[in-house]
Specification:
- This protein has 86 residues and is mainly β.
- The chain has one domain.
- It is 0% helix and 21% strand.
- It is built from no helices and 5 strands.
- The strands form 2 sheets. The chain has a 3-stranded antiparallel β-sheet, with no helix packed on it.
- The N and C termini lie far apart (41 Å).
């Protein structure tokens, strides 16, 4: 989910591995704000906690996959540049 869809991160414990859970402010399908949290297994196929939109009745989850750092031609990715010794 992107910033335009409106999410925040709170200190609730979740299965994200970081102990934080992304909290959507609106449904990514219908943009309504009537959302309720769902626990894993509440719906078949929901392996992590999710959200239930009470307006359009959809169930969805939010996953963070990482950050993308594009590599420009002729440059070296920052992760591959060795640190200078001081």
């Amino acid at each position: 989910m992107n910033a335009a869809a409106g999410t925040a991160v709170t200190g609730e414990s979740g299965d994200s591995g970081t102990g934080e859970r992304a909290v959507p402010y609106c449904c990514p399908f219908c943009a309504e704000e009537d959302l309720r949290p769902l626990e894993a297994g509440a719906v078949p196929g929901l392996t992590r906690g999710g959200w239930h939109c009470r307006s359009c009745l959809r169930v969805f989850s939010i996953n963070f996959h990482g950050l993308h750092q594009p590599v420009l031609p002729g440059s070296t990715p920052a992760a591959q540049v060795p640190l200078e010794k001081s």
